[in-house]
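in:
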């Protein structure tokens, strides 16, 4: 129905900000005031929108702002990493009510990982006083290539047994009407960072540095996934120094600069490390091999980003992921390599910054991806009564 499309467009504007006035909706959508009022009334009657208070008046009656009603339903989010997974229960506006991180090796396969994620969802729902009947959508980030349109993984290099897997079947089999969206974890970090951390940064690169290395592009305010949804595999960019990679090839950036490669070198030297956090803890504690490894990784990552900067011309490069917790031990060599490598005309055109959301960027992005699906015409028809 045309009105479902209208309602979805209204919600797209509202989702893009913390609150919006009716006047701003008129201006953004370009519809008649009668049509906008009707669609707002339908969304308010359905319990999806609510008044969130008055803006400061510039003369006359203060304008009333509209926003998503947080209590309309629950969104579940999972950020599945190479060695650690973070899950969250979020309200309908995408804000986290409760979150938890656990050590979980993605190489154990979907038959182990997905039931564990589902059990964590069960626990958090119980802790927050919610039930699965309230769940409207689920967002999942994974550290591998994703066919976004089909909702499945495609030959992920570091995820044995995951090829062709769609998480929906393992997470929510009892209710196929609930959308379960999957995306590359770097894309969800970028989505969360953009929507909640830096809404005015319309063009930026997000680099995820953890066990693996990922990259996402935000271009003109939208995550760019590429022709088949699988852009962003920074870790498997070929470099001269690269060695044997866990993807089965040789010469990948990740084979030297990834958290798993650094961890392997540290274990060979007799150190007990498992996760990227272990690597960072060792470096921050003053271990010379760990600090040298992070510095060398940063230099190589910075050199790789020189090529990306030349192609994309971003205003900001955001560094996220567990390795980013090393701070200047990693950021300084990345910055130095960028400054030394970019052409003169690109110097001073971008800044290098840490993620503003930290560990919550991934689950925030996953929740917002689920929210986008819930607000689409396909799923919106289950929650509203429309009138032409």
């Amino acid at each position: 129905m045309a009105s479902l499309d209208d309602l979805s467009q209204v919600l797209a504007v509202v989702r893009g900000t913390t609150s919006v006035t009716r006047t701003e909706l008129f201006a953004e959508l370009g519809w008649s005031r009668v049509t906008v009022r009707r669609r707002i009334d339908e969304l308010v009657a359905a319990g999806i929108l609510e008044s969130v208070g008055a803006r400061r008046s510039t003369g006359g009656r203060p304008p009333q702002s509209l926003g998503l009603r947080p209590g309309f339903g629950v969104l579940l989010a999972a950020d599945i990493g190479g060695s650690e997974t973070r899950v969250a229960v979020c309200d309908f506006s995408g804000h986290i009510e409760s979150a938890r991180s656990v050590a979980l090796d993605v190489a154990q396969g979907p038959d182990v990982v997905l039931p564990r994620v589902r059990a964590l969802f069960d626990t958090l729902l119980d802790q927050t006083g919610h039930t699965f009947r309230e769940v409207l959508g689920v967002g999942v980030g994974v550290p591998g290539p994703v066919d976004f349109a089909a909702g499945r993984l495609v030959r992920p290099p570091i995820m044995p047994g995951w090829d062709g897997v769609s998480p929906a079947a393992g997470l929510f089999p009892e209710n196929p009407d609930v959308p379960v969206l999957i995306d590359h974890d770097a894309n969800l970090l970028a989505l969360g960072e953009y929507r909640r951390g830096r809404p005015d940064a319309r063009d930026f690169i997000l680099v995820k540095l953890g066990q693996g290395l990922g990259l996402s592009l935000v271009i003109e305010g939208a995550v760019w996934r590429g022709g088949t949804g699988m852009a962003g595999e920074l870790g498997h960019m070929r470099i001269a120094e690269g060695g044997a990679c866990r993807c089965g090839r040789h010469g990948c950036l990740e084979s030297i600069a990834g958290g798993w490669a650094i961890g392997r070198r540290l274990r060979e030297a007799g150190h007990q490390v498992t996760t990227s956090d272990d690597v960072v803890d060792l470096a921050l504690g003053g271990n010379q091999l760990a600090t040298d490894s992070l510095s060398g990784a940063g230099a190589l990552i910075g050199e790789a980003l020189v090529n990306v900067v030349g192609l994309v011309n971003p205003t900001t490069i955001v560094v996220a992921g567990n390795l980013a917790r090393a701070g200047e031990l990693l950021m300084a060599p990345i910055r130095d390599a960028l400054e030394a490598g970019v052409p003169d005309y690109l110097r001073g055109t971008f800044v290098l910054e840490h993620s503003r959301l930290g560990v919550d960027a991934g689950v925030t992005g996953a929740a917002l991806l689920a929210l986008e699906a819930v607000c689409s015409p396909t799923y919106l028809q289950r929650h509203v009564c429309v009138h032409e």
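note: The mean pLDDT is 92.
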